Every structure is written in C-alpha cells, then in structure tokens.
Amino acid sequence: MQLVLGNKRYSSWSLRPWLVVRCFEIPCDETVIPLGTPEFATRIGELSGSRRVPVLIDGDVHVWESLAIIETLAEWFPDRAIWPVERAARAHARTIASEMHAGFAALRSACPMNLELEVPFQDWGGEAAAKDVRRIVALWADARARFGIPSGAGPFLFGAFTAADAMYAPVTTRLTSYGWPIDAETRAYCDAIQALPAFREWKAAGRAERWVMAGNEVAGKR
Description:
This protein is an alpha+beta fold. Helix content is 52%, strand content 7%. The chain has a four-stranded mixed beta sheet, with helices on one face.
C-alpha cells in the first residue's frame, strides 16, 4: 500500500491521511511528488482521477480525496479505532470532519499552510476568515466539552486521537503560523496536535524540503 503526497511544507490535504497512517501504525509506503512541477504534471494523471494529491494506492485500487482515504483506512483497519468507538461520539466526529472538508474557505485561502512560517497577526482575510476561526474554535470547545474531557482519554477532541483531529491538524498550523489571537484552551489543543511525534516528523521533513511555492509564502517572512 502506498500514499502519494504533495510537499510536506505546504500540502495540508496530504498531512491529514498521513497522520492517520502514522498515528494508527498502518503499514504504508509514501511517495512525495512536488506540487506545481513538470514531474507532478507528468505523473499525477496516472495516479489520481482528480489529478490532485493525496492518493492511496493498493494494487488496482486508487483512492483520492483526504476524507475518502481516511474512511477507506477505517474500513480496512477496523481494529485501529480511527473514529471514536462510541456511537454518538463517532457520529459527531464524522460531522465536524466533514464540515472541515467542505468549509472554511476564507481561512484556507488567506492563511495557506506553511510549516516554515511564523509571522505576527494581521487582518488575514478580513471578517470572513475571522468568522471561520470563531466557528472552528467553537467546534473544538464543544467537542472537547461533550466528548473529550468526559472521556479522560487525552487532550484531543474526543479524548484519544482520532480522524477528526487529523482533519483539523493543518488548521492548528494556520492559527499558530499566522499569529491568530486564540484563548488558552484553543492554544492547548494546537500544542497537543503539534506535539504528536508523527506531526513533528512531518514538520521536520517539510522544513527540510527545498521546493518553494510563492503563493504559500508571506513576502520577506520565510
């Protein structure tokens, strides 16, 4: 089984299923194809129907789209508890993961993931991005209050790390890299995600890359 990824410094959608693979110890090789290069244009068509990464490949099965990959892994590895075990928690985790998959375009556009970036807060994306951040913070607080804290299982949205955390992991980097003012509870959650050994491994690999995508950089602040 192979997971095809984009640049680790920038590819938020690649990070999501990769964290699931690593955190749940799923045996899987990986291939990084640099985004926006002739190599990417040449190779991606034979791997991904959408011509985008990530792509999970197992024999003649090709699964693109991050959330579809995560759901496929949860089906193939049912013993891994990729989603919460308890019925209500699992339903809520899928709900907020899907909201992440479909939403928050203003924040994603204004603050693209860049793991080598750390800048003071500006009015990134105006009120539209600020509204996205308020919604995300509220989602996290609600999940923690209803499921995470009562479980006593850990610092993540549902206690133990799940696919919902993988879906929101790149958001934590957007908040911290771009200096968004966040409360202590939100900061603690961001810190918990970014302290994961798997996340630290990904970040180190991203920082070691030498591919630069100008659209994901803030001028003079790399």
